[in-house]
Amino acid sequence: MSNTTNEKVRLLIxxxxxxxxxxxxxxxxxxxxxxxxxxxxxxxxxxxTTEVENFPGYPNGITGPELMxxxxxxxxxxxxxxxxxxxTATDLSTAPYKVTIDEEKVIEAETLIIATGAxxxxxxxxxxxxxxxxxxxxxxxxxxxxxxxxxxAVVGGGDTACEEALYLAGLAKQVYLIVRKPFLRAxxxxxxxxxxxxxxxxxxxxxxxxxxxxxxxxxxxxxxxKGTPDEEKVDLAxxxxxxxxxxxxxxxxxxxxxxxxxxxxxxxxxxxPRTNIPGxxxxxxxxDPHYRQAxxxxxxxxxxxxxxxxxxxxxxx
Length: 317
Ligand code: NDP
Description:
- The chain is of the alpha/beta class.
- The protein has two domains: about 5-120 and about 245-315, 3-Layer(bba) Sandwich (FAD/NAD(P)-binding domain), CATH 3.50.50.60; about 120-245, 3-Layer(bba) Sandwich (FAD/NAD(P)-binding domain).
- The chain is about 25% helix and about 25% strand.
- The protein is built from seven helices and 19 strands.
- It has helices at about 20-30, 65-75, 125-130, 140-145, 160-170, 190-195, 295-315; strands spanning about 5-15, 35, 50, 60-65, 80-85, 85-90, 95-100, 105-115, 120, 135, 150-155, 175-180, 200-205, 205-210, 220-225, 230-235, 240-245, 245-250, 280.
- Strands 1, 2, 5, 6, 7, 8 and 19 form a seven-stranded mixed sheet that branches. Strands 10-17-11-12-13 form a five-stranded parallel sheet.
- Helix 1 (about 20-30) packs parallel to helix 2.
- The longest helix is centred in the C-terminal third of the chain and has 21 residues, at about 295-315.
- The radius of gyration is 21 Å and the shape is elongated.
- It starts with 6 loop residues before the first strand and ends with a helix.
- The structure holds NADPH dihydro-nicotinamide-adenine-dinucleotide phosphate.
- NADPH dihydro-nicotinamide-adenine-dinucleotide phosphate binds near residues 155 and 246.
């Protein structure tokens, strides 16, 4: 790790979802002069969602990008130093904790809040890479526009898959929801909306084998009731293939120092954002395999900032 461009900060926050920005709001109001790096996806996962109807305080809902812009402005209002940049390496062996940004600049932080969130998963089929940017996407709100009046498929049976399918149903002619189980795992209200949508067809007990097409995606090879006596191969003509099968926590650069679970979620002391390293806190989806909601992420970001404040006052030099 280079030492040429070191900068010392009291509190470094990594990530710009609801957890990161809420931590920045609390920390800047407490005069901790936080520096926040936005990471790979400024504004986090909510920037790829449409309507957020369940964040308290918005009786008529708000779009994900608007909510994140508001949180950012609120943090900036109290002096949070919000920067573009990606944490590429860490040395958390001793305090001050060192984080390399964009492979060059090293920040030395007395306290660190990790709020780097989670990233969409892919099935792992070679065709997902073959057709990347040519009909394969993990973000309906980013790419749905290209499929107006076309036919698309969404893979997954959770809330994300239902949300993506409903969003796409407003644009596309026909949406297929490809679900590997005989039921949806999504909340009842989302399930009902999907079943009520006239142009969404749910294909239960279907798995994806691959994609085909000469000029981008033109269809998907599916298998119905895989491994059973009545297994059946089905080909569907589609123009777009959307993944909505869950997320992987963005914890790779912290793993050498931090306790994580088998999936990679950072372990925290139950009910707190404290990690196995004093002065290093984890907030939001990076430490939450269970709830993964904007409001729970925001709450844990608040708790992390309060913990950082306490830690700094106890370790005054
Ligand atoms: P989930 O983990 O809830 O669901 C993932 C879905 O993808 C499941 O149906 C799963 O199938 C399926 N899946 C996983 N791997 C594969 C695979 N290899 N092939 C085929 N299907 C696969 O993830 P979500 O992203 O949907 O939701 C995460 C959390 O965020 C949840 O707690 C959810 O409630 C929440 N959320 C809430 C929203 C809201 O309140 N508005 C919106 C979006 C998310 P299986 O069921 O068989 O395991």
